[in-house]
Give the backbone structure.
Amino acid sequence: MAKDFFKIAAVCGLLTSFVEVGFCQSNWTGQVQCQLNMQSNDYVHQETQNWVINGPPTQQGAMQVYPAMWSSSGQGTMQRAQGTQMLAGQWVTSVQGMNAPLNIFVRASDRRLLISQYHAQVVAPSGVIGVKQSGGARSNLSFAAYEWRLPPIEAGVDDTVVSGAGAAPISGGLLPLQSPAVTGSATCRWQFTRGGAATPSTPAPTSGPVVGLPLPGGTILPPAITQSAPSGTTNVSPSPSTSVTTSPAANSDPANNSSGSASGTAQPQASPPGDQSSESQPVVPSHTTVGKISTVVDQDTEEYEKASGFVAQIMFQVDQVLDDLTLQQFTAAEWKELEQQTGGTLVRSEHVMRLPPFPAAGYWLSLGDRRYMVSNKGIVNAPTKPSNTSNLPLYVQVGDDLPYAVLPSVAFVASGESLRPTVFKLLQKLPPSMNRSSETALFDEHRLRPGIWPATIQTSEYTAAAHQSCVMGVAQQQYSNNPLHQLIPDRCRRRAPCAPGNGSPCCLDYDGPSGDGKPIQRANGNDCLAIGAKFFEWSTCFVWTVAGACSNEAALPWNNLEPANPAPDCYHNHKYRNCQNLNANDFKLNPSSTMIKFGESSGLLLRNNTVGNSTCLAIDSKGPTAKLDLNSPGKLVPGGNCNGYRADHFSDLERKHYEQMKFRFITPKAVGPRPCKATYKVVASSGGKVSKATIVATNPRCGGWSGTINFQQESEWDLAVDVGGNFERRAHLSEDKDATLTIRNNTGISESEAKTTYRGIDYQGALRGGALTRIVQATINADASAKGGSDVTLEVQINQKTGEYTVQAGYRAGLGNEHEITTDHGKLVFDSNTPYSADPIANSHFPGIIGKTSNPKHIQGTWTEKLTNSPWPGYPATGQGEFAASWNLIFTPGPQ
């Protein structure tokens, strides 16, 4: 399946004048080289890709296209814990040369020379080969190698030498066994010469060899990579309601071997290349985070994180405070198991369980008179360099009056440079209840009182008496051989379960893995309190608390130090929602794109069920001023600390929350023949997420090309094959992708969507009861969907004498997720989300929208390509598939 989307070349010029034709007929030679060196905790990949012109150009409609060869070479390694086993892999990339023509032309709008790829993304089946080892089993690997998209290459129209450098982003999941959370950028350099000069030789890659842990049989695994950190931390008290410590990067304690930045932008330290003997072993991590990969691809949020300007990364790190008695309750093996389950590190010298840093997603950093959202990867993006980066307030909600904390220093760098995360550390001992009641507001003589707890955290250990109120013997060794829920007294069960929805306050703080899913009345005795605390561990409310969404609530005792300004409970903190009903990914502005005329309006539907109670809405456009009006319950505030509007999804008077809000986007009336069009981007941001709607407004008084362009891919395949010995494989794959471009007056919008299903089973023959039977060895189930829209750029070139035409249409395909679950002998091996594109022609040989017409005001045509090769290299498959394109455009002149 395509891991990248194909973009047709952007606006280009009509080659009609003698100068331009003469320019194109003067041959060019040259090449582009892109190098990637990607590293993370468990993944290393190095690769070099080259594009070299290897002949004179040919005429394609009104364009001249140069033949070029694409080649790639690289290597990589991976090791990742999957349950109790270690999954490892090693591979090499080798593509000797494939056709990848380049287009060199002059753009008519500004007379700039452009060099771009003139082909769909090239894919080399089995261009990557290697080995994989899971536990004691070893198997061969075979992946397709994907061509990267080149960065923009521009020069002056009279330049005879074009040289420069740029970056090509490499999205998560594009490379072999790559985690979607690990992204990178290849460094590209190019040099082209006009007039037949020799093509420069390809420089050798500058990156060193991959170094890793040797496994039996010669397999090499990557070394452990830890984030570099400065020494020392600074203790501060940023707000009356929070006790924290902060540092400009990851904590310097050597026991803290957490992964650092979730975005993969932290600078790792790899072992030096060279000796791989036993005397030169790389550092082995003290723990490896296990569990499913839950990254959700969000194309709009990724664009926000990579936008030009200045960026910073803000991370949280929780230190769970432990007393001596707690430290003694578990054996070394049990602490190690807890570290593997949580991804944390036990630091005995500090009496803490240190959890890995995680993004401060959804918080808002104040810069001047505006607040900037922290994305789901912890990224803050400011359009200009902040004049002040010291003592910056951080808010839980964009509309809050009081900051959650004040960060002593935040490191901003220019977009594209290496980030140094600002890590905001919280010291906390989570209470046994997340409900604001006598359990948290009042403490008897055996419990810690408000005002004492924070001082105790920072100055001394907990007393045994205080500890007994949290963890009693009923939850410890004396009942270790019996199921805990069978020993619960009836008085501990006198609490009603949470009702569905948000009708009344209730926290789901009893569905942890140690419980039976039923609530506990903790106030009915210390044994009830202890059992409730055990049920609370890793419950829904526990996870939300650790994730930072509830860190300002009354359930945390240190937030109750000011009686005159009490901290909110969960229900009021999320504006009449219970935390178990929140969804960090439930955020979308629809429709993704639409087209209207000046003077008309368009409806917008905003859905927000993230931790954000409000949404910032900004209108980005260089066209005539447009505005938003509210058309539903809620509140729309101009400004409101946002660059435009603030939409409040709640009513304090009604005590209700509105997950969905409706707006009208209103454009001004056209008063003349100009402008002919305007593209508006409505940008919504909240809860660490960004969603955009593209609205194209056109002027009916202008003329131009109008019509539709359609792309489609459909395929369905089945595999049933004896793969050797007693093994058999069966698989089914179906995929459907569509993209429709609607054009009016030389501009337009696109709508693209896609879905795919894959089901695979590997069988192994075995004797059971004297009869040969089949048992399931492994399964792979994958489902993917993508949807999106964007504006469309269009330029049509027609040779008035011959009728030959070329249409350049630029658009952005939607992006979504492919969710794959892999099992081995019934055990879960892999559960991942990777990017999935809705571009139908990414893997086709589509030559472009070209043809010949007898009517210079009407262009129409079709193109198809049958899929005949099996999608499983080396195995025959039954089925069929087709790529198709169609276009129908009519030119209407404007009023004279």
Remarks:
- Residues 1-25, 197-295, 436-482 have pLDDT under 50 and may be disordered.
- The first strand starts at residue 28 and ends at 39.
